[in-house]
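thread: overnight batch results

M.L. [08:02]
morning all. the overnight job finished for the chain we discussed friday. pasting input first so we're all looking at the same thing
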Amino acid sequence: MDIFGIFYEDDDQEIIEFLNYQRRTYTIRMRVDHMTLWDDHDFRIRFRISKVVVLQVLDHINDQISSLTDRNHAVTSINKLLLALRFYATGNFLITSGDFLGVSKTTASLIVRDVSIAIAKLRPMFIQMPTTEREISKLQRSFYQIARFPRTIGAIDCTHVKIQNPGGPNAEYFRNRKGYFSINVQTIACPNLKIMDVVARWPGSCHDQTIFKKSQIYYNLINGKWGNSLIVADSGYANSRHVVTPFLNPRNDIEELYNESIIRTRNPVERSYGVLKRRFPVLSLGLRLKLETTQAVIVACCVLHNIACDNNDMDPPALDIVLPENENINIEEQQPEGENARQQLMQEYFVHF
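M.L. [08:03]
and the structure it wrote out:
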């Protein structure tokens, strides 16, 4: 057998295939003008936010996402934004979102990345903790009206956003206690369900308390930025001078009264997760993107949620599917950190009810 002859034949075949290769014909797909095609009701069903909110967001990010030229039928800024919103709204494959706007899967991937990063950069503008004494007092009054819990400026919790295996030597850090890969996202909510702070960089195996103690919010609290204000949390957090949690096993009427008040006061953060994930189901169904893009999508969805709340778009349209419930994965009680505000409240406030 002539081995060299076989090699020569293979080379000839590759050359023939190369010479006969024909590029696919360049096609221009129809692109629907969704802003004029749908009325307000149908538009919200498909994109989960109103046209008013879309135009407001576009006004902020247009310069960052607009194409440098109109050559080769470049995708317009509004269509880029709508494609990203459609992806957030369905959690589907990128090729499906691309088909909806008449672009390829590769183009859809780049658009989702660029638009998500552009919206996430709006975070300092739309996701803010109170900064002035007037804002702090207003927020404390709003929380007090829920269940007469004093000094509260925020309700904190974490939620897991499912992701694909990120790969690499540290992939298992992203596997949470339920066995799937996720990012553990910390947020702080106010009574009107707006998100005042978001941390979306920690793997699913990290405990809620660990994320909190590594956050800027924690250092601001212990350094007295908000005075004696409190953050209400569940039992996955440790009681401290600025964070209070319920009793897991209340022993008397006063502790039961305290529990009822704090549970109702921290309810906004749970409700905010429900609204956020119903508005953008991709956060419930899971993200199959690069890790950096996934983090940008999470923050972008929080920014869009707040902008929608500012425009009284509080209740997203109903879905045709049942989304997974939000899970409290890290719920075991943490040990108190020395002197804590819960003891003080029990002795000086709730005992007089």
